Amino acid sequence: MIKEERIHKIEAYILEHKSVSLDELMEVFQVSKNTIRRDVQELVEKGSVKKVYGGVTVKDEKRASLESFHERQVRNQAEKKLIGKTAASFVNDGDIIFIDSGTTTIEMIEYIKDKQVTVLTNNLDFIFRALPYENLTVISPGGILERKTNSFGSIKYLDMLNAYNINKAFMASTGVSLTNGVTNASPIESELKTSIVNRSSKVFLLVDHDKFDKYGLMTYCNLDEIDVLITDQLPNETYQDYFNSTRHKLVIAK
After folding, report:
1. How far is Cα 80 from Cα 66, in angstroms, rounded to an integer?
2. What's the CA gap between 1 and 6, in Å, rounded?
3. Model confidence over 212-251: pLDDT tens digits?
4. Domains of the chain
5. Is the entire prediction scored with pTM above 0.85?
């Protein structure tokens, strides 16, 4: 096994098991302790893992709390507009799409407002801003009002969504990681988000660079359920390697 392949597999093993000893890595990969130490050091310098006494563990991720819509809206505004514009370029006339709650997904409206599109959404701000555009057919599942996210978190009316063939879903997240997947800080919304991902033909995730290696209260889908991830900066090599080795697409907004 060549060095690059071995290091990649060691990284994957550590990410899967969260924390492992150097002796365990020596046994699994059949190499000397000096070789394991050098390989682990490369991963430490890369930023995906950290050393602990006698072994190595996944680098700590930051837990994201549920902030108000305004608090999130004013952060990374320019980047969010750019991501929204790029995401909108994937929307075609005649599409049936889902627009998730969020301060990044809301930016899409400026770039789809002249298209003939059916939009399912729980995003109150999107509904209000879509009012002048009769070419946008807007459908909302309703549900419980989540004031911090300016959205409906639907529990009772999930079955309603099964009547619609959603071909593209544009999702938001409070944090994304390889270990915890795509996460959300609101329990009220999470069931709806999971249902949308399962129902949609193609799933897009819109996240700015601050969302990587963070996680929210609940995982609503795994990263491998996302077809296209759109962000504003190239993430670290761990994520680049993941997307390069899978069918999933990473798009940097321009």
Report:
1. 18
2. 6
3. 988 887 889 999 999 999 999 999 888 998 899 888 999 9
4. 3-60 (1.10.10.10), 69-252 (3.40.50.1360)
5. no
